[in-house]
Amino acid sequence: RIFKGMWLLSILVIASGYKSMLISVMTIPLSPQIINTIRELGESEHPVASFGDTFFLLANQSLDPSLQSIAKRYITHYNFGEAFKNVSEGKVVLGEGVLALEYRRRKDYTDEFGVSDMHIIKECPFAFSVAFGLQKESPYKARISDKIFQLKESGLVNYWKEKEMESSGRLRNDDERQEA
């Protein structure tokens, strides 16, 4: 009887421990912490990659300690396919233009329900614009500038951007995600 009682007691302890562990695993999410700021990225151990070394040079010259920390872990890449593969595998954080990241996120990293497994942080360390290069004193400069200004003011640039983003993949907004 003593052996049988000890046996039942040990089974009870093991079963209770297993049940407690199972409950804790099911209630505590194991998803990684989402990084939304430059400070959080600077404090993390993730290496940061970008095309060329412009981001590295700007981050390295910055007075912000978070950007200097990011510059220490910087990796230059020259192959976008490999870079995005590394991002999807969680090997690196990719520093590129917001439109390029958003387009690629919608095109390649969004499922048929509009859920993406790629996250773009909300804070942007540097603002870059795209420009057209013309020779100095070009006779076309004024005309091209006027046309670009007209396109922007008419809303066509934003319309084309949104149309292209929607054609590459539709993301569900936060309200739709909470309902699902």
Low-confidence runs (pLDDT<50, min 5 residues)? Answer: 175-180
Major sheet summary line: 3 strands, parallel
Number of helices in the DSSP assignment? 9
- H/E element order: HHEHHEHEHHHH
Oligomer: single chain
Task: Write a brief caption for the model.
Helix content is 56%, strand content 6%. By secondary structure, the protein is mostly helical. Helix 3 crosses helix 4 and helix 6 (98-108) packs parallel to helix 8.
Description:
With 180 residues, the chain is mainly alpha-helical. Helices cover 56% and strands 6% of the residues. The protein contains nine helices and three strands; from the N terminus they run H-H-E-H-H-E-H-E-H-H-H-H. It has a three-stranded parallel beta sheet, with helices on both faces. Helix 3 crosses helix 4 and helix 6 packs parallel to helix 8. The chain is elongated, with a radius of gyration of 25 Å.
Which descriptors apply to this entry?
180 residues; mainly alpha; 3-stranded parallel beta sheet; 56% helix; disordered C terminus
Present the secondary structure layout.
Layout: H1 2-27, H2 38-43, E1 48-51, H3 54-61, H4 65-72, E2 74-77, H5 80-88, E3 93-94, H6 98-108, H7 141-154, H8 156-168, H9 174-179
